[in-house]
Amino acid sequence: MKLTFWGAAQQVTGSMYLLELDGDYRILIDCGSDFESGKRALKENTPFPTALFPFEASGINLVLLTHAHIDHSGNIPNLYRDGYEGQVLCTDSTYALTAILLKDAAMLNQKRLNEINSANAQRKRKKGKKKDLPKDLYLEKQVREALENFVPLAFNRRFRVADNCVVTFIPAGHLLGAAHIMIEVWEEGKKKTIGFSGDIGRKGYPLLLDPGQLPQVDYLICETTYGNRVHEKGSTPELALADVIRRTCVDIPGRLIIPSFSIGRTQALLYTLNKLYNDHNLPPIKVFADSPLAMESSKVYQRNVRMLNREAREFNEDNESLFDFENLIYLESSDASRAVSNHAEPCIIISSSGMVQGGRVEYHVAQNISNPYCTILMIGYCAEGTLGWRLLNGQTTLRIRGKEEQVLANIEKIDVFSGHGDQEDLVAFVRQQSPEQLKQIFLVHGEKPSMDSFKNTLESVGYDNIEIPEKGQTFEL
After folding, report:
1. Rounded distance between C-alpha atoms, residue 162 and residue 25, angstroms
2. Taking a C-beta distance cutoff of 8 angstroms, is the pair 272, 333 a contact?
3. Residue 412 in contact with residue 244, Cβ under 8 Å?
4. Phi, psi dihedral angles at 428 (to 5 degrees)
5. Beta carbons within 10 angstroms of residue 127's beta carbon
6. Residue 176 — pLDDT band, cuts 50, 70, 90?
7. What is the DSSP code (8-state) at residue 246?
8. Best CA proximity match to 255, nearest among 333, 372, 351
9. Of all helices (H) and strands (E), which one includes residue 17?
């Protein structure tokens, strides 16, 4: 049995791992979009890959999907386009959220394709060189084909996928439907077990179940997004958010902008705001949810209340809704989004994307970046180079939408809404495994400094034989 690391190897995005069993059976665990390799190729002036996948898509027998986020699911339509004919196994909620994300990505790809074709038409008239089409631009047809082959599975149920292979999905927290995946394989009369962490959530996170326990395995593939970081302690989401709102919208008649990812983070925010308004802890400040994607995702959460934690289920029963409250306004159209700039009262704007890179939130930040009565509240991870990262690093001027702006808005950060477990959560996850029985640990889905730090931490508590694979590296298990 061989395991090859084709994505999220010494970087965060592009999760994709190929497990090859004896008997010529190949399982792909996650098939995510890689947002970092292209940037690195441009920076280092190295050529882009000539093919999207480093293996024959038609040679894959099965895909297992840990959760819906695009860095785990985003290349699945391309896999079908390139010849894959098998199924995608995931939880029911992951299927529903993935459908929303992939359809949205296809729509954006169509716009990008139209722009490239228009530019190439102009180049042709001027006898210039055409720009090649990116290899990752799947469209609605490929999304439909992919979704037709998704097979939802229940949590904590063993499912035989081949004569010698059984898989089990275990709640991982992090996002509705997210799973750890355990794979049991029998080869030459011996049983081997492999555990994939997916993205590990936090205990007590709004709406979500706590991460479940992964049974003892022989080999563990563990994410390290926050392997060198510990979240702030001592405040609940309700207290932290209420404090910011009072200071920014009540004590002064200001405006609070919260860049937030549409799936997962926005639902946690709206649920927390609903609780605050129901408890009469806030005055009637308008809350604008500016993301059609978030609105569709909230419907999935609402339909799947039974999959949420006990507190969320009880709150929904008492209030008949997880998210809807009197002062909440969903902005569906672009015109409605832009019109919020004319709202004269204190307000809260929740808009994607969370890193202030693309999406409607860029417009809101551009309109308010020089407003000293505006606060921009960052609530999650921002990759290096993004507008969010630059705001967090104290830039006094910011080039946004082609214009240089002075940063006069207040920039704040809280991490109580981060959906990723921190170093302590990751250590707790690994310590579910006996050091004596665990044959090897592979660290993935993290920046290299985070991985190195987490490796040192694990070694200090008794774990050894820890690998930090490079992209394309293969291990015999």
Report:
1. 8
2. no
3. yes
4. -60, -40
5. 6
6. very high
7. I
8. 372
9. strand 16-21
Task: Name the amino acid, one letter, at 147.
Answer: L
Residue 292 is encoded by which pair of tokens?
Answer: 């059609």
Candidates 369, 364, 324; CA nearest to 347 is 364
Could you tell me the pTM of the whole model? 0.93
Residue 135 CB neighbours (<10 A): 15
Position 35 confidence tier, pLDDT thresholds 50, 70, 90: confident
Q: How far apart are CA 239 and CA 257, in angstroms?
A: 18
Taking alpha carbons only, the member of 475, 426, 461 closest to residue 446 is: 426
> If we measure between CA atoms, which residue out of 13, 114, 32, 12 comes closest to residue 72?
32
Give the span between the Cα atoms of 382 and 123, in whole angstroms.
Answer: 36
Peptide bond into 15 cis (omega under 30): no
Give the pLDDT score at 46. Answer: 46
477, 467 in Cβ contact below 8 A?
no
H-only helix segments in 254-291:
265-278
How far is it, in rounded angstroms, from Cα 365 to Cα 376? 8
Q: Give the span between the Cα atoms of 350 and 244, in whole angstroms.
A: 14
At residue 194, φ and ψ (nearest 5 deg) are -125, 135
- pLDDT tens figures, 306-349: 999 999 999 999 999 999 999 999 999 999 999 998 899 999 99
Neighbouring residues of 428: CB distance < 8 A, sequence distance ≥ 6: none
Mean pLDDT of 8-20: 95
Give the neighbor-by-neighbor strand order of the sheet with 466-467.
159-162, 165-171, 179-187, 190-196, 219-223, 440-444, 466-467
- Measured distance CA(140)–CA(151) in Å, rounded: 19
For residue 266, give both structure tokens: 């926005």
* Residues facing 415 on adjacent strands: none
- 377/243 Cα distance (integer angstroms): 12
Residue 181 backbone phi and psi in degrees, to 5? -125, 125
DSSP letter for 409, please: S
Q: Give pLDDT, residue 41.
A: 47
| Lookup: tokens for 383 | 């990759």
Q: Are 21 and 164 in contact (CB under 8 A)?
A: yes
User: Can you tell me the distance from the alpha carbon of 74 to that of 63, in angstroms, rounded to the nearest whole number?
Assistant: 13
Q: Which residues contact 72 (CB under 8 A, 6 or more apart)?
A: 15, 30, 31, 32, 65, 66, 198, 199
**CA distance linking residue 173 with residue 93, whole number of Å:** 12
**Nearest one of 91, 370, 413 to 235, comparing CA atoms:** 413
